Every structure is written in structure tokens, then in C-alpha cells.
Amino acid sequence: MANLAIRTEGLTKIYTEVTRGGLRRRKIVGLEDLNCEVEEGEVYAFIGPNGAGKTTTIKLLTRLLYPTKGRVWILGQLNTSRASMKRIGYLPEQPHLYGYLSGREFLDFVARIFGLDSKTRKKRVPELLEKVGLENRASVLIRNYSRGMVQRLGLAQALINDPLLLILDEPMASLDPLGRKDFRDIILELKKEGKTIFFSSHILSDAEMIADRVGMLNKGKLISVGKLDDLIGSNVTSVEVTFTIEPAKLSEMNLKQEDVVVCDRSVMIRLRKEEAVSEILKRIDKFGGKIISVIPQRKSLEDIFMAEIRR
Amino acid sequence: MRVWAVSLNTFKETIRNRVMVNILIFAIGLILLSLVIGDWSMGQQVKVIKDFGLSAMSLFGLLIAIFIGIRLMVQEFEQRTIYVIASKPIHRWEILLGKYLGLGITLAVNVIFMSLALWGADLFMEGKIDFGLAPAILLIYIEILLVVMLALFFSSFVSPNLSAIFTILVFIIGHLSAFLRDYVQLHPENSYNWVLKLIYWVVPNLEMLNIKMAVVEHLERPPHAVTYGFFYGIGYILILLVFTVAIFNKKDFK
Fold first, then answer.
1. A122 close to A160: Cβ distance less than 8 angstroms
2. Mean predicted confidence (pLDDT) in A55-60
3. Most-buried pick from B11, B15, B50, B182 (CB within 10 A)?
4. pLDDT in tens, A157-202
5. Residue A233: its pLDDT value, please?
6. Containing H/E element for B93?
7. What local confidence, expressed as pLDDT, does residue B192 receive?
8. Which range of residues forms the domain containing residue B228?
9. Do A196 and A40 meet the contact criterion of CB atoms below 8 Å apart?
10. pLDDT for A59-88, tens place per residue?
11. What are phi and psi of A17, to 5 degrees?
């Protein structure tokens, strides 16, 4: 069995909510009996709608919340130990950083908390500022940063200790499309460096693009876990073949009308079986058609997630 | 190292805070204003300047202590900056102690500036500096530190407004505790005396830290009054720190 970066056992969090001026108390289940394993070196996406329990899970992993029941192991050690916390990098959802510090000062402060000596700090801080593209804004006070810049600095502080495990809470939620692409690239780069990345997201397309494995969470319960390839890869529902051809030749091809869309000289055929692709390509060639594209249609993570929720 | 990092950061936060700097400038201005007020008091100029200066130092020190102290803690939770720090390999008591020490350094700097203003006014009027004020200033500083600790203690479990109200209440009762004791002795028949006695024992007697009158009037002080006051204040601070850490340790950072 591969080494585990995260392991939770029966992790449960029940919140007590005080209502009506403190007269009534009611219990709210934030997370119920979570048993989850994340292997070292993988990118694991924790997906679910808002309020599903993703942030609760992450706060339990990082000891910001105490569990009602259950335990957490980080890289083989219980997360109650300070040693395990030294190997984690954590980026909260929409991080709020000290606005009265500059980016450089903030990273230096975080580095001091990790006990990095002056020489290491002087090397590491500019390196990270460059990595997240903030080297030119290092001396600017954080209160003058845009949301995207704060997010980048948040990632830099999560990397200050060169962690083995990165825990990111909705890392791309507040970024514009360009920022999201940059962020995805950084995550993939970190994966190449051998880091384990556990991130939560309600934007399924992000998870689909970078995750190896996905855990689906709904109403505080883990409803499904699987490798992205298993969930999506084998689920080719159809193949769309687009080509151009003379109208007269098209009628000679004698295609099933319900699966064909014609627009001027362009034709799109939807094939229900992958095996039929080579046969149709041969026929298009035989009738003098010109192939434009062959696109397999898969179920998206969103389709699978919606099906799981409805189940 | 970690406690020092948090202290240094807290110090930076407070000195970059305009509200605090404004209060400090106002306090120093008021102390210097005592030169004018002293002029109106026939033959008592020097005493008025010292009395006014020490009182202003105490009052403004307390204002900074209560409002900046509560604000610092509350902001950590409201602005959620605490998430980034508390998830690092740092004990929660280290965060709290670091914050407290950082505030302590800021308040020390405040007291030093206000003392310099007071001694400057004194030098102007008397032609010499009265270092006899130093023990009173030391105890004012201890009192301010104690009030900050009270503010941190209350803000660890009640809302910021309630925390400010409780801190001010304790401050007022703390200066009236001798009256409480005397009242109970004079009226032993009252059924609610046990409440007054409880308050008397729980609330710190802040008059132990007040020797302003004695130093200004050059009155004889009880032996070891400064030492006793100093350790009394530090003792209370340590007890409150332990309680605050206990509450802070159990807190969920939702």
C-alpha cells in the first residue's frame, strides 16, 4: 500500500448553534463519519456544493476545529502533533492576510513561525514571491493587493516551509479565468515536484483538469470516491465526427438521419459506439469527404456528481 | 522565536495603526497643556503639572489598552487572519502570549513617550527632572498591562462591546474595592454582602497600583508599596493569562 498523506477515521463534527437570543440550542452536523485516505504524491479534489462540509473537513485536518469524534493522521502522524503540522502548507478559503504588512514582510513573518533561520528566509521569501509572480509587488502593503494577488500570496505562505502536503480550500474560487489557469499550472508544477495536494472545490471543471482522484461530499457525508480516469475515462457516451462533403455524395452515404446534423457543406455525425468510428472514417474517405474533427463525448464530472447526489 | 515573531508582528500592527498614534499625540498634547493649566493654579504649578500628567498618562494608556487590545483580538477572528497562523506549527498559547507581549511593548513605548513629555514639562517648570515619579509611572504601566489582559480575557469569550464594558466595569470596581470592603464592614446586616465580598476578592484592587498622590505630594508610602504593587499586578496578569489560554485552547476557529 502506498504511503498515506492523509488518513481520517470516523471524523465527525457537530456544531451547536445558539438561536433565539441564546435560549435555544440545536445541533448541526458539519461532517459525519468521514473515512478518507489520500496517497502521497496524488492530487485529490474534495468536491461538493456550498455547505457540503469541505471547509469543515479542511479545518479539522489543520486543527482549526476540534473533532466531535474521530482522528486524523497527517503523513503517518496524528495531527495533534506539532511535527505533523510542520509538513503541511495550508491556504484558507479567500485568505485574509495582515493588510498592514507588505507581501515580503508577511512571508518573513510566516517563515519565522516555522522557525526558519535568517539565511533561509532571505533565500526562500524572494524565491516564492517570484514563483507566484509577485516579485514586483513585494514591498506593497497587502491592503493594496487585488483579490488575485492576495490569493497568490496565500499560496506563497503555504509553500514557505516546502511542505510535503498542501491543503488548499477553494483555491480558485475567487480568481478570474487567467488567474485560475496560472494557479492550475502552479499546482501541476508542485505535483511534479512530488507534493501531495488536497484541495476543495465547488467548481468541478477545475477538479476535472488537475485531480487524480476525487471525493464527493454532500450534506456532510462522503458519497463517492474514485480515480478521475475511472469516473470519467471509461464513460465515453458518444463520438462526434465532423467533416465536409458534397451534398450529392452525402445522400449516397445513406446515414441514419437522427444522428446527422447538416449545415451547408459541413456534416456532424454522432456515433453511439466508439467501435463505429474507424468504419465511418473509411466511408467518408471513400465518398471524397474531408474530416474536420473526431471528438469523443464523455460524461463530465458534473454529470457524475449530479447523478450521485440524486441517487 | 515563535512568540517573538508574533510579538514583533503585533507591535508593527499597533504602530501602523493611526488611531493609536492619534491617541498618543493627543495624550502628549494634553500633558504639555498642563503647563498652561499649572499657570492658573497659584503656587501649585509643579504639583498640578505632575498630577495632571500622571492622570493623563493613566487614562490614555487605559484607553489605548482597552480599545486596541480588544480590537487586535477581535480582528483576528472577524478578518479570519487567525486561520493562517493557527494552522502553523505554533501552540495557541504562543499566539496569545505573543500578541500580549507585542501589545506590552507598544504600551511601554507609549508610556515612555508620555513620561518624556511629563518630564519635559517638569524640567521647563522646575528646572530639574523629578525621577521620584518613576515608581508611579511603573505602576501605571503595570495597571495598563493588567487592563489589557482583562480585555483579552473578556474578548476570548464575549462580544467586543461586552468585553469593553466588562473591562471598564472591572477597572472602576477595582479602584473602588476599598469602599466595598468598608461598606460591608459598616453594614454587616445586609443579606447581599456575600456578593460584595465575592466581588472584592475576585476583582483586582487597582488602588494597590495607584501611588500618584503619594509621589506628587511626597507623602510617606507604606514600605515596599511599589514592590508589592508590582508583584500583585503581575500575579493577577499571570492568573488571567492562564484562564485566557485555557479558553483560547478550546476554541473552534469556525
1. no
2. 94
3. B50
4. 999 999 999 999 998 887 888 888 888 888 899 999 999 999 998 8
5. 60
6. helix B92-126
7. 83
8. 2-250
9. yes
10. 999 999 999 999 999 998 998 888 888 999
11. -105, 130
B76 to chain A, closest Cα gap in Å: 9
Q: Are A239 and A277 contacting, i.e. CB atoms less than 8 angstroms apart? A: yes
pLDDT in the model for residue A125: 96
In this prediction, residue A260 carries a pLDDT of 85
Asked if B14 and B20 touch (Cβ cutoff 8 Å), the reply is yes
- What total number of domains does chain B contain? 1
A172: amino acid identity, one letter: M
A101 contacts on B by Cβ (under 8 Å): 9, 12
Please enumerate residues of A whose Cβ is less than 8 A from a Cβ of B: 15, 59, 62-66, 82-83, 85-86, 88, 90, 92, 95-98, 100-101, 105, 109-110, 112-115, 154, 157
* Residue A203 dihedral angles phi and psi, to the nearest 5°: -95, 100
Query: Quick one: which of A65, A35, A57, A39 has its CA closest to A223?
Result: A35
The B-side interface with A (CB below 8 A) comprises: 1-2, 4-6, 8-9, 12-13, 16-17, 79-81, 83-91, 250, 252-254
Give me the residues of chain B with pLDDT under 50, please.
none
Q: What is d(CA A172, CA B226) in angstroms, rounded to the nearest whole number?
A: 58
The C-alpha of A92 sits at a distance from chain B's nearest C-alpha, in angstroms, of 7
Cβ contact B83–A112 (<8 Å): no
Q: Is B192 exposed, middle or buried (0-12, 13-18, 19+ CB in 10 A)?
A: exposed
Which residue has 498559547 as its cell numbers?
B93
Q: Residue A5: name the closest of A66, A75, A70 by CA.
A: A75
* pTM to 2 decimal places: 0.82
- Cβ atoms of A15 and A28 within 8 Å: the answer is yes
C-alpha cell read off for A237: 457516451
Q: Is 60 exceeded by the pLDDT of residue A1?
A: no
